Amino acid sequence: MPNPESSRQSNRQSHRSKTRPSSSAVRSKPRPKDRVPLTKLLRVASVAGGIQFGWALQLSLLTPYVQQLGIPHAWASIIWLCGPLSGLIVQPLVGHLSDRCTSRFGRRRPFILAGAISIALSVLIIGHAADLGWKFGDTEEHRRSAVAFFVFGFWILDVANNVTQGPCRALLGDLTGKDHRRTRVANAYFSLFMAIGNILGYATGAYSGWYKVFPFTLTPACNISCANLKSAFFLDIGFMLITTYISIMAAKEVPLGSSGAPDAEAEGGVRW
Fold first, then answer.
1. For the chain, what are the domain ranges?
2. What are the Cα distances from residue 213, in Å, to 32, 159, 181?
3. Residue 19 and which of 5, 40, 134, 150 are 20 to 30 A apart at CA?
4. Coiled coil where (predicted)?
């Protein structure tokens, strides 16, 4: 005579086997077709290397250049205060504006491109501050015009770095969407390129022979150390423009307001 308890257990086991998906079925679940490729995330994040390359050059070369221009130590500290101030104000403001940007080129890419162009112009101003001051009547003892050009270019550079960095992070978030694995990978790529930019930037700043590669940087107003800084910034411009081009060409954004465009409020945009 069959045992009723054992029959009930067998029925429960058969019911579980029917309702619970097998491990092979879980493994064979197709991946989403719209998942962003890793190569695209890698290319978009590459602009972080160009940004960080410029930051590293600032830290390694501009402090000695400030002393060479004769800027007092107290004023030099105020000049360096621009970095955290611009990060506090500029990045949230640019993020708010890019969330609602209706450009046909997308929401993030116009800001990335504008920031990269501003970086290039600002480092040209910084590198040629002594030459510009010389044309405005500076002497070897008094470099007030050169200091004014330097401070102007320095502040523009810090603002432009933050204008570029914020939309780049936001663009990676737009591409990954709610795919948390891809978001973690995108953040890892961004950090990777920041580390690469730091290494290359400090290595470039440590080499004192760049003026030999660009001999035209030596002028009556610009000595060897000044010419070396100017030459290093030429490399910064080239590296920044290359990584920016790779980044903005990798991502094809849908203009805000068109069919298929993401909604800023739905993506967590802040209502102001």
1. 91-251
2. 50, 29, 44
3. 5
4. none
State the DSSP code for 179.
-
12 token code pair: 């429960």
Q: Can you read off the two tokens belonging to residue 219?
A: 């002028």
Radius of gyration of the chain (CA): 27
Q: How far is CA 44 from CA 48, 61, 97, in A?
A: 9, 28, 20
| Helix-helix angle 38-45:180-206, to 10 degrees | 40
Q: For residue 130, count other CB atoms closer than 10 A to its CB.
A: 27
pTM, full prediction? 0.78
Mean pLDDT by 10 residues, the chain (272 residues): 52 51 45 75 93 89 84 79 82 87 87 93 92 85 86 90 88 87 92 95 92 90 89 94 93 66 42 30
Coil, strand or helix: which one is 219? strand
In 10 A of CB 167, how many CB atoms? 29
